[in-house]
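For the sake of transparency, this paper describes our internal protein records without simplification. The record that follows is passed on verbatim for readers who wish to inspect the format:
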Amino acid sequence: MAVGVFDSGLGGLTVLDAVAARLPEVPFVYFGDNAHAPYGVRDADDVYNLTCAACERLFDAGCNLIILACNTASAVALRRMQESWVPEGKRVLGVFVPLIEALTERQWGDNSPPREVAVKHVALFATPATVASRAFQRELAFRAIGVDVEAQACGGVVDAIEEGDMILAEALVRSHVEALKRKMPTPDAAMLGCTHYPLVKQVFQDALGPDVKVYSQASLVAESLSDYLTRHPDMLGTGEAAFLTTGDPGRVSDRATQFLRRRIEFTAA
């Protein structure tokens, strides 16, 4: 009865940690496509093909439901996958949904016309590919009106985190926040549109200031998944918990320990 969690690298471990804590009875199969990370600088077809290949591997591991704990894959590939690729009886879900639910204070199944919401000026921090896709703005426009979104492509942050260079990652975050503020001096809220960014959430918060509400995805995704499985218990697969990677298992295991502060052993996918 495993659920798959996919990311191009290790950022999805922040989501895995939250969903595992929320659903301790559910085994999760984590797949990191570390050999091809990061996805945020790849073109749309490349992201789509790599994401489909990863999901195929998770289906083979006994997962009926997969969470794309990768904002780039969610933004660039998910809709195309759902429309033309996902096999019958399987589901692939993204991580934008809980962010937009939280921001607009409405459920994803609420298809009423877009309405005014309290937040008017939103800063979005994400990878270059996620920003270029405009997926966040498109989905938000279906549900809210009068919201100004300023997106900042945060080049280099994922690479620095993956390499364990947190000093560089923090410096890059501060630089990207400064760049965003030149375009939107006083945002009401900030969306961290990458699952790596919870590791530097406090840096974002400090750079933005105490008056800006910073939304991060891990806990929001955990609550959303719990609700989904309550409504769709048939989506639990038959696999067993595992950690898979396309990269070097030893090296990836070492990096994962830095993310979660506990030892995780990856095996070759």
Observations:
- The chain has two domains: 3-94+219-268, 97-216.
- DSSP finds twelve helices and twelve strands in the chain.
- The chain has a mean pLDDT of 92.
